């Protein structure tokens, strides 16, 4: 099966490509960072399926799927609210980020089944799509997401909702909590993918912030910074500022 991976976040694309490579009988024929680039690659490469992020700049995944002939579509997103529209667009599946290997395998198997049918494929029911969209929400409500961090000779657990900022320093990722700094073993790129469903966004090559913790934005261009609820400040890269403003609900 020939698959195109479409996501505006490079770490998410890399992770999907790694997971697909582990499935066997799947060839990633290309990658795209937005809907416009994806449309060009679909036309040029004619993939069997596309893993398509919903929210992207320029042209989002839903608009792309509405706009012309498409291969089999597996939508990927950190949000559940687009599930009904995905169903209306006859998506083969709808995966919540962070995407698990077994869940991706089932979606690819569903594509294989669709490609092997002579008749038009059966569209999954609304209940099927909504269950896929919810993913692990019940488990997440029962046990809030947590991060493990090294502090001296022990490992401490932190609820993700209490974290305002993660930043790269030297070769480590640092979490500052109650005035103390602790170290994480994960890379910032890995944490960016893992924490995206919990409202964390990369605003600088060395900064990952919790959108819910933003108090204010000051400065413009390369001097822009965000103030967080615990008094920390994070630098914002010039190219990330417009997207951050949109995510926060203003120009």
What is the element layout, followed by pairings?
Blueprint: E1 2-6, H1 10-23, E2 27-32, H2 35-45, E3 49-53, H3 61-66, E4 72-77, H4 83-88, E5 93-96, H5 101-115, H6 126-134, H7 137-142, E6 146-151, E7 154-159, E8 165-169, E9 172-177, E10 180-184, H8 188-195, E11 200-204, E12 207-210, E13 214-218, E14 225-228, E15 233-235, H9 241-247
Parallel strand pairs: 1-2, 1-3, 3-4, 4-5
Antiparallel strand pairs: 6-7, 8-9, 8-12, 9-10, 11-12, 13-14, 14-15
What are the main properties of this structure?
OB fold (Dihydrolipoamide Acetyltransferase, E2P), 15 strands, alpha/beta, five-stranded antiparallel beta sheet, 251 residues, globular, 9 helices, five-stranded parallel beta sheet, Rossmann fold
């Amino acid at each position: 099966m020939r698959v195109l991976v479409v996501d505006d976040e490079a770490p998410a694309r890399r992770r999907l490509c790694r997971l697909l490579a582990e499935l066997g009988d799947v060839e990633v024929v290309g990658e795209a960072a937005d809907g416009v680039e994806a449309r060009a690659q679909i036309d040029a490469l004619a993939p069997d399926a596309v893993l398509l992020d919903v929210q992207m700049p320029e042209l989002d995944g839903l608009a792309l799927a509405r706009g012309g002939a498409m291969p089999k579509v597996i939508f990927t997103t950190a949000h559940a609210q687009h599930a009904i529209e995905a169903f209306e667009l006859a998506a083969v599946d709808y995966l919540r980020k962070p995407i698990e290997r077994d869940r991706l395998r089932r979606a690819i198997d569903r594509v294989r089944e669709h490609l092997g049918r002579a008749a038009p494929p059966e569209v999954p029911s609304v209940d099927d799509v909504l269950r896929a969209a919810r993913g692990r929400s019940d488990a997440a409500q029962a046990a809030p997401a947590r991060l493990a961090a090294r502090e001296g000779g022990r490992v401490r657990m932190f609820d993700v909702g209490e974290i305002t900022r993660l930043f790269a320093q030297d070769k480590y990722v640092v979490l500052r909590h109650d005035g103390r700094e602790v170290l994480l073993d994960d890379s910032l790129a890995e944490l960016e993918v893992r924490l995206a469903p919990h409202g964390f966004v990369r605003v600088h090559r060395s900064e990952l912030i919790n959108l819910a913790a933003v108090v204010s934005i000051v400065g413009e261009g390369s001097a822009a910074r965000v103030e967080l609820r615990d008094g920390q400040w994070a630098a914002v890269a010039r190219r990330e500022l417009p997207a951050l403003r949109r995510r926060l609900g203003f120009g």
